[in-house]
Amino acid sequence: MKKETIALCLNFVCFAGFFLFFKNGIGSLVPMSYLPLVALSALFTAIASPKFLVNEGKLYMKIPFVKKPIGF
Question: H helices of 1-72, where?
């Protein structure tokens, strides 16, 4: 598989996992309707999930609030 495809799949899997975690966590702690719950979960997920990218054929992971990406 190409590195770009791997980065895309990892971004999707991490986003989905964090989204479900935040949706279930916020939903169990704060009773709110569905649309604000999904919007708030998506906002927190976009901030907290790691981003994967490819630069010069090498796969990197950018962790939030850490300046330098980690190479694989």
Answer: 3-29, 34-48
| Token code pair at residue 51 | 């981003």
- 28 backbone dihedrals φ, ψ, rounded to 5°: -85, -25
37 close to 27: Cβ distance less than 8 angstroms: yes
Q: Bridge-partner residues for 59, per DSSP?
A: 54
pTM, 2 dp: 0.88
- Reference 53, options 63, 65, 67; nearest CA is 63
The whole-number pLDDT of residue 26 equals 95
How far apart are the two ends of the chain, measured CA to CA in Å? Answer: 15
- Series of mean pLDDT values for 10-residue runs along the chain (72 residues): 94 97 95 94 96 94 93 86
